[in-house]
Amino acid sequence: MQRLLIKGKNKINGTINISGSKNASLPILAASILTKKLVLKNIPLVKDIFTMTDLLRFIGIKCQISKKKNLIKINNLKKNLNTVAPYKLVKTMRAGILVLGPLLAKFGKAKISLPGGCAIGSRPVDLHLMALKKLGARIKIKNGYIIAKSPGNLRGTNITFPKISVGATENAILAAFCAEGITTLNNCAIEPEVKDLIKFLNKIGGKIKFKNRKIIIVGTKKILNTSYKIMFDRIELGTYIIAAGICGKKIKFPNVDANLIKTEIKTLKKTGINISFDKNNLFVEGCEKLKKLNIKTEPYPGFPTDLQAQIMVLMTQAKGISKIKENIFENRFMHVSELKRMGAKINIRNNVATIEGPTNLSGAEVMATDLRASVSLVLAGLIAENRTIINRIYHLDRGYFSLEKKLKNCKANIKRI
């Protein structure tokens, strides 16, 4: 089994190129079920992307991956696809459920295994199923599978989500894309990745508008071939900004849009980290005397839960008592026990973590428990004394492309063993 070995206390300096967004790529790949020919550019070649392309191939879609160019060519000329997504291809990746909407929209039926992914808490599919039922689907769950059928074409309707869900919003958009009439979605997720999906769908012939948390979809039958460039990964960018803030001299991030991470920048500046930008470049300088923070995770445009573990590492280096309130997932503090093995002073009560700093972390052998937890251990290893060994890094490979190479290029002492 592969592990990461990190020798800490090196200052990092240089340029880090941010990859395309995993969380934007996956729903757009699911949307390829609706298309015939498609080229997707700026794809991050991480494990979840390969899992999704394996799922598309199982369904019957040809996917040609160019690792040199970071693109995927889609050829979907078969009239009849396999409308089953089996457990073996969905068990490690929650985004597998996103093929449910487009399969149902195009073929009127789908059989999808209940999804897996990181064990960060309960993430039920009830909002996905509620939206599809409103569009006219008949759904039952049997033997671990969602079995959905539509007696006729899906029909536009008015749907209000009782709480904000990125996945359910995306699945509803994909299902409504070919539905008869107009669908209005209320109380939607408005993450940049959702907007990237809408931008893509409009490019293949969609008629979708959004305002605040309302999305209006006019069903369409005419679908165009196209090429599309995936947006940058804002969570990867946030992760490396934090890395630069705690152990960086000066790091440049080219070709990113700072407007998409306003909350993250505003929050990190409060700690004393120097963040500046010009046009499409962002620059970060580390801070020797970090200030404490009190934050809570919220749906976009609030502070993202996907950066909670990473900013916790930063808080171990800040002077005073910092607090994080986790409002999205109830089991997203599993990295805390591993950080405490490295010397972090963290207490958990209900959904609030209290972090005392600054603390000198020391290297240890630790275990990754989920995608974002794994990268928080990398950050801790970069600032810890001596050597850190991180086990179960397959979690990391699900969402971070060329992490060791990017950090090595900035003088970090890190290698895969």
What does this structure look like?
This protein has 2 domains: 200 residues, UDP-n-acetylglucosamine1-carboxyvinyl-transferase, Chain (Alpha-beta prism); 208 residues, Alpha-beta prism (UDP-n-acetylglucosamine1-carboxyvinyl-transferase, Chain). Helix 6 links the parallel strand 10 and strand 11. 30% of the residues lie in helices and 27% in strands. It is of the alpha/beta class and 417 residues long. The strands form 6 sheets. Strands 18, 19, 20, 21 and 22 form a 5-stranded mixed β-sheet that branches. A 4-stranded mixed β-sheet has the order 23-24-1-25. The chain has a 4-stranded mixed β-sheet with strand order 2-15-17-16. The protein contains 14 helices and 25 strands. About 2% of the residues have low confidence. The longest helix has 14 residues. Helix 5 runs parallel beside helix 6, helix 8 packs parallel to helix 12 and helix 10 packs parallel to helix 12.
What features would you highlight for this structure?
five-stranded mixed beta sheet, alpha/beta, UDP-n-acetylglucosamine1-carboxyvinyl-transferase, Chain, 25 strands, 417 residues, single chain, 30% helix, 27% strand, four-stranded mixed beta sheet, 14 helices, 2 domains
Write the layout of secondary structure elements.
Blueprint: E1 4-7, E2 12-15, H1 22-31, E3 37-41, H2 47-59, E4 62-66, E5 71-75, E6 84-85, H3 87-90, H4 100-107, E7 109-113, H5 126-134, E8 138-142, E9 145-149, E10 158-160, H6 166-176, E11 182-186, H7 192-203, E12 207-211, E13 214-218, E14 226-229, H8 234-247, E15 248-253, H9 262-269, E16 274-278, E17 281-285, E18 290-291, E19 294-296, H10 308-315, E20 318-325, H11 335-341, E21 345-349, E22 352-357, E23 365-367, H12 371-383, E24 387-391, H13 394-397, H14 403-408, E25 413-416
Parallel strand pairs: 2-15, 3-14, 6-7, 10-11, 18-20, 19-20, 23-24
Antiparallel strand pairs: 1-24, 1-25, 3-5, 4-5, 7-9, 8-9, 11-13, 12-13, 15-17, 16-17, 20-22, 21-22
Helix pairs in contact: 1-2, 1-7, 4-6, 5-6, 8-12, 10-12
